[in-house]
What does this fold into?
Amino acid sequence: MHLQSLLNKKTVSQLINRVNMKEQPRQRVSHVLAPLSLLCLALAGCTVGPDFARPDVAANADYSKEKLTTTAQADIDTGGAAQRLIAGMDIPGQWWTLFRSPALNALVEEALKANPDVSAAQAALRQANELIYADQASLFPSVSGNVQKAREKVSGVTSGVPQSPILTVSSASLSVSYAPDVFGGTRRQIESTTAQAEYQRFQLEATYLTLTANVVNTAISLASVRDQIASTEEIIRLQGGQLDLLQAQRRLGAIGDSDVLTQQTALAQTRATLPPLQKQLAQTRNQLMAYLGRFPNQDQGERFNLASLRLPEELPVSLPSAIVGQRPDVRSAEAQLHQASANIGVAVANQLPQFSITGSLGSTVASGTKLFSSGSGVWSLAGSITQPIFDAGALEHRKRAAVAAYDESAARYRGTVVTAFQDVANALRALEADADALNQQVVAERSAQANLDLVQAQFRLGAVAYINLLTAQQTYQNTALSRVKAQAARYSDTTALFQALGGGWWNRADVNPDTKGSPDRFGLPSWQEIMPAKSKAAPADAARLN
It folds into this structure.
């Protein structure tokens, strides 16, 4: 702590002595204000408590031991492209547009405007910004006016008048109070509130990121389920055709009832897989409606399939040193750590002397005299210093609690950073593994289909038993569905990587700045707030659901 020499025992002593001096009023005021002005200069001289600095990340921190540059390529148009990972490449603010789907872009934009979680996060940020200005007001003098008129009877005993007079006393005054922030406690409190607003800001960015990722993943899930339904329906068509063939052969006496019944069972089992997929499709669509702020009956029938989404072929990989500044959750944890650091300064300042200056100027008259007439003026000026002497250790323990809260926030920050690196590492590993998996699933599906065609031809000629045909059908069915899931996984992995890297919020241009709040620095209540209309609905009623 560096306290300016202007604030010393001599200055404080002079201040107290001059308040009590028998001087002329104007002269007395000038002599008092001089040291008070010097006292106020100490505002810039001292701020107790630690100055916050972002913790450093280990220089050798990285996502993996091996560098991944390019994923495998599958021999299929939808989701089969190889993806190149470019270190240090910037992330677009609207990263979802890389999927090249106008329908998806429209849904994301709608969700950002209508989702209740976004509206709640925006309101929380506006609240936090307003609280900053509320705390900053403590740095300024407080000025209040008072006008009073009273009818009173004065005691004759105390006034020295034989008869008790009845007076009408009128007064008007202007009062000023000011608490100099000598040790920086108020500034630390403002710093704490500002850090809380920073936390809410990145909570809003986290809400944006989570929402956009959820909308994209939901669209991918819809596309995957729809393609699985289409594949299942194709398999049902093939099995139905095979059942017709078996029934024709039975009529000719070439096969027995057992083969026909077995095929009927297989067909029924395949058909039984459709209702769960249709249920999943409906529930996924309901989830999408919730993200969009719609009710289920407001579904407008937006359709997605994997072929309508283009897999980005170039993906950014942020430098490890940049990840702590990009992830909203890391920035939120950093803001909480900053707030905890500032709270230590507040706790320390509460243990030190507190200064205050008060003054008033006005006029008081009795019956028959006008306010502000000659001789009716009254004024006062006072300064005080308050120092806690004994509080049973309460302030000291609050300081220690603030230090412990800082240690807790520091540990949570480190944990959040580790989780951020883990998320990126998981996303990169998933990109690599799922690209390889899709490549193999495409090979397996084509082999299964070729085998099914061969077994069908052989079965028609009577060269193989029906059990071989049934096995080939089941194998092809499984590989076709697994291929669709593998395709969807590559799109989901891409979304996970963008989310793990922070989503490019620093490049965002689609958020209305007004949603973050713009407080009126010295605002007064509006006429509508002072005199609300009788027909005006309550806030809860005004937010009626559509």
In short: The chain has a mean pLDDT of 85.
